[in-house]
């Protein structure tokens, strides 16, 4: 088979190789890349093709092997092996699993700080926190709306001071 005939046969095989590439990669762009890699490898190794054998089967084999090689390379690249003596990277905080312990401690601190508020500030604050409007709180507690706003403001300020340890990690400035 001449070089021109081989190139023509490669060109005609792309229509049947494309669906196979899509089945392997399940992504349009990756399938195009795989098809291109396959055709480049076939062209570069045309001297290894035996004339008279099934060209499509040869191309399918190249494509399948290219896909497997690329997949294995990607998996190796994403695998991290810690070779330090003290397993520094494995024990670093970047590999920690979040188990909500910090959230639980924070909620305990918040609840404790709210409980420590004077009752005259705690009640309007909790009502506002639970969705009541200022005028509803004023009506239920039988106090002026300005007093409600003032007590909620003071409660927020006291909570902010009591929970300032969380200001850097949570953005409570």
By CATH, the topology of the largest domain is Rna Polymerase Sigma Factor, Chain: A
Rounded mean pLDDT is 83
**C-alpha geometry:** rod-shaped
Q: Which stretches of 5+ consecutive residues score pLDDT under 50?
A: 169-173
- Specify the CATH homologous superfamily of the largest domain: RNA polymerase sigma factor, region 2, helix turn helix motif
Q: Rg, please?
A: 34 Å
Q: How much β-strand is present in the residues?
A: under 5%
Number of helices: 8
- N-to-C order of helices and strands: HHHHHHHH
Helix content: 55-70%
The CATH class of the largest domain, by name, is: Mainly Alpha
How many strands in all? 0
Specify the biggest β-sheet. Answer: none
Instruction: Using the 3D structure, state the CATH architecture of the largest domain.
Output: Orthogonal Bundle
Structural class comes to mainly alpha
How far apart lie the N and C ends? 76 Å
Total count of domains: 2
């Amino acid at each position: 088979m001449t070089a021109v005939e081989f190139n023509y046969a490669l060109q005609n095989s792309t229509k049947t190789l494309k669906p196979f590439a899509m089945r392997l990669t399940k992504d349009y762009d990756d399938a195009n890349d795989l098809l291109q890699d396959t055709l480049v490898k076939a062209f570069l190794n045309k001297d290894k093709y035996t004339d008279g054998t099934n060209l499509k089967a040869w191309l399918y084999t190249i494509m399948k092997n290219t896909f497997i090689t690329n997949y294995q390379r990607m998996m190796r690249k994403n695998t991290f092996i810690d070779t330090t003596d003290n397993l520094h990277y494995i024990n670093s905080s970047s590999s920690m699993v979040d188990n909500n312990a910090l959230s639980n401690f924070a909620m305990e601190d918040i609840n404790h700080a709210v409980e420590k508020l004077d009752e005259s500030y705690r009640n309007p604050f909790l009502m506002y926190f639970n969705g009541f409007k200022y005028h509803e709180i004023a009506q239920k507690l039988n106090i002026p709306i300005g007093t409600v706003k003032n007590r909620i403001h003071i409660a927020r300020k006291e909570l902010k001071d009591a929970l300032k340890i969380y200001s850097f990690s949570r953005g409570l400035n």
